[in-house]
Amino acid sequence: MTPLARARTCATLMMEQDAASRGLGMVLDHVAPGTATLSMTIKPEMLNGHGICHGGFIFTLADSAFAFACNTYNQLTVAQQNQITYLAPGRPGDTLTATAIEVARTGRSGTYDVTVTAGNGSTLALFRGLSRTIKGQHFPEDGAAT
Which residues form a coiled coil (predicted)? Predict the structure, then answer.
């Protein structure tokens, strides 16, 4: 199996089980080893008392992109720590895009940076996720770690 096919298979299986991402209307736009891009449109029920996107929804989009990126190797991987810096608000109707990129992966630990942008290209948030590989696989595969 090629690394790209492995990443796509993992992403398909994860999305089938990810009720949170699907429920918020997230779409997996791209996946490859160590990277993933998800998008989501800001709905009225995602707005806070200031009429802008609640930061928790932006964080959730970034966290989902991080999760898909760090799970592209057919090894179950979870978040160990993450942080976000908000730079600009998300507006009603904006389509947000979160692009996760692997910065480092050594042993069971990984570091991923996620940039969240709006449709006009402006950067709304920067997210850094630290991952930890745990026991298990997304699907059985000869030669893969269990």
Answer: none
